# Entry
Amino acid sequence: MNNESINNEHGLPAQSEVPNRIPTAEELLQKANAEIQKLNENLSYSKKELGILYEVSNAMRSFLELNPILHTILTGVTAHSGLGFNRAILFLVNTTDRCLEPRTAIGPESGEHAQKIWEYISLSNQHIDDLIKKDKIDQNIKSQSSLFDSIKDLKIPLKDNDNLLSNAYHDGSPTHITPDQISKYSNDIFLKHFHTNELVIVPLKAKDKVNGIIIADNIYTQKVISDEDLKMFIMLANQAGLAIENSRLYEMVMHKSHTDSLTSLWNHGFFQDKLAEEVDKARTNKKPLSLLIMDLDNFKILNDSCGHQNGDIILKEVSNLLKDSSRDIDYVCRYGGEEFSIILTQTNKESGYSIAERIRQKIEQYSFPAFSLYHEQKVTISIGLATFPDDADNNNDLIKQADRAMYKAKFSGKNQTYVSE
# Structure
C-alpha cells in the first residue's frame, strides 16, 4: 500500500490536494497596498466626476438664455478639466420642421491648433469655471468657425431611420461607434461632414423626451473612448437636457411678455429696450441705424364705421404685411394703438426710405377684408423716418425725430413717407 492510499484511509488529503503555502506578511501587505491604491484611484475618479458635474451643472443653472447654456454644455464636454473630448457638436430638435439642427460646436481646426489650445489652457491653469465665464479665450488660438461651418447647414430629418443621429433620437440611448465599426457607416449623412474614426452620440433628454443630441470624438489625441468616459458623458447629458428644457420654457415666457397679444409683434416695452441696445451697438460698430414710425390713416373713422372687432382684423392684417416686408435683422413692433415702428439695423437713410416706401405701397395696394357689401376697405399708412447718427445721437431723440416726421407726413396729405430733416 502506497503513502497516498494510507493517507486517504486516515482521511488525510492527497498530496495533490495540499493547500498552497501561506503568504508571508510582506506579500499580504503588498496586496493590501495594491487594493488601497486601486480604491484611491476609483475614489479620485469619482471625485473628479462629481466635481465636473457640479461645476457644469452649477454654471448651467446660472444662465437662463439658451445660447450660453449650450456653450456651457460643450465646454464641459471638451475642456481639459472636463470630459476632455477633442471635439463636440450639439444638435437641437426643431419640432416645427421635425429635424435635428446644429446649434453650436467646439473644437480645434487641426492637430496643431488643438495643441496650441491645450498648451494655453494648461499654462494659464484654467478650469471649467474660467472657460465658461469667458465668452472667448483668444481668437488666435481658439476658433470653432471651421468645425461649425462644416455642418451648419446640415439638417437631419427625424422621419428617417437610416442614419446615426435620427436613430439615436428615436432610440433615446447613447451610441458608441468604435474604430472597427466606423467603416459600416461610411455613407452616413453626418459622417460625410464630420470625419472621424470613433465617436459617441448621446441624446439629451427632459422628462423622457429627447430635445437634442451631442456628438463627440478624440480625432487628434486618438484617446480610446472608455466605458467610464461614456458613463460620465451620459451623466452630464442628463443635466444638460433638463437645462435646455428649462431655458426654452424661460424663453417662451419672456417672448410672451415682450409681444403684443393682438398682433404678435414686439410690444412697446421691448421696442424701447431694443432701440436703446441697437443704438449703442450702432455707435460702437460705427454703423447707421434707421427707425420707422408709422400710423394708419383715418383709423378712428374706420373703427367707428366698421366696429372695433373689424378694426382689430385690420391691425392684424397690417402687422402681417409689416413682418413680410421686413428683414430678419429688423424688429417690427406695435408702438401703440394704430401706430407701428420698425428698427432697421445696419440701414442708412436711403435704404430706410426704400424699405418704407415698399411697405407703404404694399399696404395701399392690399385688398383688406370687406366689412360692408357697399364699399371696399382701403387702408393707407403715413411713415416717418429718422436715422442714427444723421438725425439724432441717442435713442430718445431718434424717436422724437421719427415721430415728428410721421406727423409731417400726416399733415402733408397722408399715405406718404416723410424723412427727418
User: Anything to note?
Assistant: Confidence is low (pLDDT under 50) at residues 134-143. The CA atoms of residues 76 and 82 lie 5 Å apart.
